[in-house]
Specification:
Pfam family, one: TetR_N
Helix content: 55-70%
Order of helices and strands: HHHHHHHHH
CATH superfamily of the largest domain: Tetracycline Repressor, domain 2
Number of domains: 2
CATH topology of the largest domain: Tetracycline Repressor, domain 2
Number of helices: 9
InterPro entries: Homeodomain-like_sf, HTH_TetR, Tet_transcr_reg_TetR-rel_C_sf
Oligomer: single chain
Shape: elongated
Radius of gyration: 19 Å
Domain HTH tetR-type: 1-51
DNA-binding region: 14-33
Structural class: mainly alpha
Strand content: under 5%
Number of strands: 0
Organism: Propionibacterium cyclohexanicum
Length: 190
């Protein structure tokens, strides 16, 4: 069933289309899942569980860069993933597990549990939103205005964000978040 959902597209599948793909009725699917959202959550869980989430702990910036890069890649490889996840009212358990794992890694670098969770959530939302905004169903190109000329005080992406340079302003946005996290971490150690 989940493979049929993925074939239809996470963001746009209908229970009827999934049932037709499987050669059954939508009523049969409702015997397994109470709602379309439950089916979507199960599909997201499977996709997230299949994904290899790196756990580099060289630095907290590397941890966050790995998380953001892997989530971005997942969004690019799984049609409709970002908009599906952003539209859910329930958080799939596999996503919660990933968030908890990365939060634990950040704690080893001095972040409080709460700050780590907020930071991972903020980065995840930014990656998902950017992916969703840059993905168009009609395959038209999304025009992104260039960044203003360099400002000496602007947040600059480090090597852990080099992969995001082609994703609009994502690298700069994440660098800004990273700089805020660094400030918070430094303030906590004083």
């Amino acid at each position: 069933m989940i493979e049929a959902v993925l074939a239809e597209g996470l963001a746009s599948f209908t229970v009827t289309a999934v049932a037709e793909r499987l050669g059954t009725t939508h009523a049969t699917l409702y015997g397994y899942f109470e709602s379309r959202e439950d089916l979507a959550v199960a599909a997201v869980d499977m996709v997230v569980t299949r994904t290899e989430w790196p756990s580099s702990s060289d630095s907290w910036r590397a941890v966050l860069g790995d998380y953001a890069r892997t989530l971005w890649k997942l969004c690019q490889e799984t049609h409709g993933f970002a908009s599906c996840v952003l539209g859910l009212t329930l958080t799939p358990s596999a996503i919660s597990d990933v968030i908890q794992g990365y939060a634990a890694l950040l704690e080893t670098h001095g972040f409080t549990r709460t700050d780590a969770l907020v930071l991972i959530d903020l980065i995840g939302e930014e990656v998902l939103l950017t992916s969703m905004l840059l993905s168009r169903e009609d395959d038209r190109t999304v025009e992104i205005p260039p960044l203003p000329s360099e400002d000496a005080d602007a947040s600059r992406p480090g090597k852990e964000l080099s992969w995001a340079s082609e994703a609009g302003w994502l690298a700069r946005k994440l660098a800004f978040i990273f700089d805020g996290a660094d400030y918070r971490l430094q303030r906590a150690s004083v």
